[in-house]
Amino acid sequence: MIKTLIIDDDNDKVRKITDVLGRVDGFDAQNLTYVGDIHSAKKLLKNHNYDLLILDIAIPSRVDK
Question: Which distant-in-sequence residues (6+ apart) come within 8 Å of 45 by Cβ?
Fold first, then answer.
């Protein structure tokens, strides 16, 4: 299984990436994590290992709620 992290704040883009990854042998959506800000990504990367990282170049530091 390919453990994947997507870091992107555009939900439409995340959905398109997930659709493409779904066609790859060994990919399972249960092993996919996505976040939309740098703060969340750093927390995950400190505690987990990923086989694949897909990173948007322009993402916010934190998500405003």
Answer: 5
The confidence score (pLDDT) of residue 44 equals 97
Euclidean distance between CA atoms 39 and 10, whole angstroms? 16
Strand partners, 40: none
- List Cβ neighbours of 4 (8 Å cut-off, separation of 6 or more): 21, 27, 31, 32, 33, 50, 51, 52, 53, 54
pTM for this model (two decimals): 0.86
Element (H, E) at 18: helix 11-21
